[in-house]
Amino acid sequence: MSVTIEHIRDAAAVIAGHVVRTPAVDSPRLAEATGCARLALKLESQQFTGSFKDRGAYNKLSSLTATEAKAGVIAMSAGNHAQGVAYHAQRLGIPATIVMPRGTPFTKVERTSAFGARVMLEGDGIDSAAVFARELAQREGLIFVHPYDDAKIVAGQGTIGLELMADWPDLDAVVVPIGGGGLIAGIATAVKALKPGIEVVGVEAALYPSMYEAVRGSNKPLAGGATIAEGIAVKSPGNLTRAIIKELVSDILLVDEDAIERAIQLLVESQKLVAEGAGAAGLAALLAHGARFKGRKVATVICGGNIDARMLSQVLMRGLVRDGRVITLRIEISDQPGVLAAVARAIGDSGGNIIEIHHQRMFYDLPVKRADVDAVIETRNAQHVREIVAKLEGAGFSCRLLSSRSIEEAK
Fold first, then answer.
1. Positive or negative, the Cα torsion across 28, 274, 262, 285?
2. What per-residue confidence (pLDDT) applies to 218?
């Protein structure tokens, strides 16, 4: 195998003092939610650039010869590898060019530029960006720094496994997000060398099951599309990483977009921790496949925290709606003075908090002397929703929940 525990130990010595030795924190509330006996969160989101990519980037860049460093480096990335390479290249005095897909979140583009790199937005995804980056590297004589299919990169990421085994030696399983596979290949190499009986499980976004299909020898086309886990939205997994994963990783689980959103929300609410979609994928798998990990001591890697603020706010608001804690009720009223006040009083008496309220008078199917009122209401939970509806109906107001779920289905 091209990457060994010795390579990872060498990488640990190289990066010591140059990247954060991140904590692996106990999370009893999330352990309860997932059914794990204990759950450790390895907080790679606390790296200086907000992701684990700092490790491999420094290990790779520090290995360059003086001639290679003078020529400069180029990398393609959806954001986190870009920041890791740009940050450490700046520290080491190496010129850096970063090619990012055009749909990369603004926060990742801006942070990469802030590290002094030349940033170029090319292609609709990481694979098309990679084609452009390789062509540019050849034209300009730049050293290509691959985000995952490189032994130095894999060894750098594997240092996470060394730290996990030092902090949590009694783990039964480690759950790791997979994009191109560099992170899980490094971690699996480390933890399996130190504790052969430990299980390593990978997680991919259901829209991009590239490694899942690759290790099975399948040529099935990917669904692709927009995903909140853009950091692991990789169509072409690595050859080096594929071989390691096929040998050391017992299973790869797929998670859908709703599960990833839910995991981001839970990390904020239960752990007070911000994670991007890829960073929350491990928790999403534990929530979606809880029976598989029930009663076991598990760690998952929160591999990045670089989520766009607008996207985070949308995820949290959608979560409140999903949980029945923010709802919209359409209430039918007679269009005359004092009626709206009666509606507000009924909601207030039930303990609901009106966030917004809108009259809908122009619907053609409404009698001219009637109106619909759309009330956006903050509630405690779905049971509270039913109480508010009962109060309104008891006061003579017909209403319905503007949601994919009916009031009767709310739990």
1. negative
2. 86
